[in-house]
Amino acid sequence: MPRRPTQHDFIDDEMLRAPLTFDGVIDTVLAQWRLRQPRHNRLDGDPVRALQLHRGDLVSEALSHLRIAAQADLQDMHPLRSGRLTSISMPSTAMLQKDPLEPMALSLIDEDDIAVDIEIARCTQTIHQMAEAELRELHTFTSALVNDPNVARDTNPFRPDRFVRALWAGLQQIPLSRPVLTAFLHEAAVPLALALRHGYASASRRLEEQGVEPAAHRTIVYAGGTAWGVDLARYRPPANLQSLHDSMPTPLDALGATDAGAATPQAHRAPRPATTGGPDPQLMELLARLFAAIQDDRALAPQTTLLLQRLQPTVLRLALHDATPLDAYDHPVWRFMDHLANDLECSAPAHRARLLGLCRNLVDHLAAATPPEGSHFSWAIVRLAAARRHALAQALTAAAPQIDRLQRICRAEAGNTTATMPLDIGTLDTVPADLMPDDGPPGARASTALLIQASQPGTCLRSYLQGEWRQLTCLWQDGGHELLLLAEPAADRLWALRQAAFARLLAEGLARPVRVRSLVRRAADKVLQAL
Hints:
- By secondary structure, the chain is of the alpha+beta class.
- The chain has a domain at 7-91 and 115-209.
- The protein has 19 helices and 7 strands.
- It has helices spanning 7-35, 47-53, 55-74, 83-87, 111-130, 132-145, 160-171, 178-209, 241-247, 255-262, 281-295, 302-321, 332-346, 349-368, 374-398, 400-413, 442-454, 499-508, 519-530; strands at residues 94-96, 105-109, 460-465, 468-477, 483-488, 493-498, 511-513.
- Strands 1-2-6-5-4-3-7 form a 7-stranded mixed β-sheet, sandwiched between helices.
- Strand 5 and strand 6 form a beta hairpin.
- The two termini are 50 Å apart.
């Protein structure tokens, strides 16, 4: 009986076939370039000849990075955090060296670097779209190799993003300018997607022939995906919690007290009083289900879940004598829970313990209030906002040396302008008012508004930079709006982006402000679906 393959065997087997994939992509791009060469300057020489001469170096380097990324799964580590993989994505335009006395490294990103990020994201998304079925099938087999019967996570060591980043790593071995290499990645998107589609399907057939039983099929949500486009609503909660309240099951011993009310049609019922002289069993059932749904939210950290769980008795006491929390999702009770979860998620690891202590104190203070009032939760929201302002001030103080360095860069790059020169009115031409351009199309105005919003200090962003999604916080913008300084709390790192580069990220949907999500809206949707 043949031995059942392991994930290590699968990686070794697929690595033997990977060179054919890269060679096929290179052949396709070469054929396209022979018909029409990409834009290049004189220093590039002949791009076709350069690619032919160095294709061996390209494939060798790509295979090296692909193997490191695939074997990272065996070592239970994140491949993108290793120094070797990160080094290929470091910006080449400008790199500001870290001072030994400064806690954070600083990287300056311009439009050329953003163009690479956009092409990497587009190439990855093209593969996901063209090979969706084959990827889903292969996931069931690779999950079986690592004993994940429910396909709870992505266990494919040769995911599309890894192939794309490996290809980009290999391209660094070609002596061509960044725009030409970016053009190669653009041309390689479709042929790489077709090759991987065939490769994924063949890998599934081989694993099946080797006796691997696929795991249970589940839909997988890619946490590190690079899709962009319109935002679709993932859930549709009821208009308010009152309808859910009336739908809650009532215990048998409470039916006698509710028979009269039940005989009245729902549309003609009188408004529900805030108190009825005793506990409302339907209200208790509703809040219990809402908090259970919130605690099952995997996006919340365990410490956040414990804090929200401690709030449940306080919210119940408030709702028993004040029915307003059931009328709107933006009640101070729910907004406090939303901001608490969001602030803990976006906080820097170094400051999270202090913020967690503040949140515990606020929860204890709310629990001690007799009786609890909505105004108490409004006060707690103000305290959280003050903590955010304090954290922003501390981050700006820590980043003061880097801000000073960026200001010097802005002054050095500023050319001579006529802004301060006197004007000769007699030499100026006049333009009729009806011929003057307006503010632009609505889409342009919306993009400008989004740029202004995303550039405000303290704004939390989710952005695709240097090949991966990052949680960032806007710290500072220079007076001329040329540079934007962003902090990445999770990596203790600073990013300086050119304004044009940041605007392009926003336009492509690869950067967006993080909105405080409503926990109770999502929980209400889950409760509604369970009824």
